[in-house]
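ok trying again, last paste got cut off:
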Amino acid sequence: MKQPIHTDILCVGAGVASLATALALLRTLKAQAKGSLPRVTIIDKGRNVGSHVLSGAVIDMSGFEGLLTEEEVSKMPVEARVSTEAFHMLFNATSAMKIPWVPPLMQAHGYPVGSLTKLTQYLAQLCEKEGAEVYTGFAATELIENNKGRVIGVKIGDKGLDRDGKPKCNYTPGEEIYAKAVVLGEGACGILTDKLIARKGLQGQRGQSYAVGIKEVIEVPANESRVGEIAHTFGYPADWSTYGGGFVYHVSPTQVMICYAYALDYAHPEIDPHLLFRKFKAHPVMAEHIKGGKAVAYGAKVIPEGGYYSVPQVVADGALIVGDGAGLVDTLRIKGIHIAAQSGRAAAETLAECWNKDDFSFEALKPYGERLKQTEGWKQLKRVKNVRAPFSTNLVLGVMSAGCAWATFGKFPFWQVPMAPDHEEMLPLKGGRLPEPESVEAGPTSPDRLTDVFMSGTIHDEDQPCHLKILDRKRCDECIKLYGAPCQRFCPAEVYRLEDGHIHVDFSNCLHCKTCQIKDPFQNIEWTFPQGGDGPRYTRM
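nice, full thing came through this time. structure:
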């Protein structure tokens, strides 16, 4: 049994929200110069900081005002700045309309464009300079609570177990880390975060909704004139009752980032988001941006889209929830980095008060929730609080509703538009059978799924317990009959395969996006943690 580790503030996940919390906390207390500084520890399950993060990313810098100095802002790993913007409505596989103007809330002229992987690595370096400790390859698998139900730490997963759960020669038991306060910055669909929300009854006014975002980096023939050019789309290949859209960013003379996001409340079980991504790239509007190129990097991640009404209570006894784990994403702009940073600063201000008073009680932590509501990011969430839900009914209705919501500062619609959980929206197969599968010609800019998975760098020790648990194999049989085994299509990494009437799980392909746990119509898949350090190894996402 390892000796427990004791720290003062423990941040779980090395994303923007956690890193902003640590950085702002240490800088605030240093500026106050009232006494000793807390021990601040940041842990992440990825092999390196940034290995498991993915975003566009056109960065709204408002989240970093007051957090970074001018010199630090100038040294941020920015690859380009937005110079030219376009917005397209895609009608079908060949036709489109360029919107004459970019909607005001979508405008990003002058915004920096870069890799979230590199941004988090940069922020982690700043945190370490301030005295924070950053540890990677640490998968926090359980929250530790005392006998009063207060969160007092986390349990790190064991390493070196074989596929049957028995210790191998390199077995290392997981540590227990204890802290005065735990900051949960796991990102969207965080396992510890969701368990805490369920156990403590912290749910928002409605459940969270998600989209899966699939992204590639494509190397193209050099063209200096296009650096900073970006384009956003909505419509095709989504149907008229599903929320979906994409983007393309020219981040260097030879590099383009392209992504397609598809809402997981879709109805038709034959939907394959990776195939939609390939169809999106084949559209003439998108194909022109990546002509002559070659895909060199790949990743996928879920995006919390529920918005204002889906944000949970963000304070529990001993714990704070920050960033995407709290659903803090502007669902109209599909931006969350700046709000994540603002939530981190709000958490830091609260923790600084707690440290100065030596009081980390629930009452002392509660002001974080009020501080969060004073941020500009929260005001943005409120303004677009009903934007996402109408898209579940009809694309045209959604666009009209979004315009009304923005124009009335969120006052219209006047009621809370309901949304069902994503997994409940799937309909049985028409006629009990799948339609003939569509195909897209493979090529350098349109690799197949397994080639994409290879480019993600994902690696898992295959002699360990499978971290994707199918809870009841009999339910799989029902799912195959009713829905045609949708797991083999909604997974962007080909983890699930239907062979001889049975589902096989290739967990070594997993990108840790958690689409399967969200969309499975029977809620029969449980995503658990593989050993720390396993999973994707993103370098440019």
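cool. The radius of gyration is 22 Å. The domain at 79-112+208-304 is CATH 3.30.9.90 (D-Amino Acid Oxidase; Chain A, domain 2).
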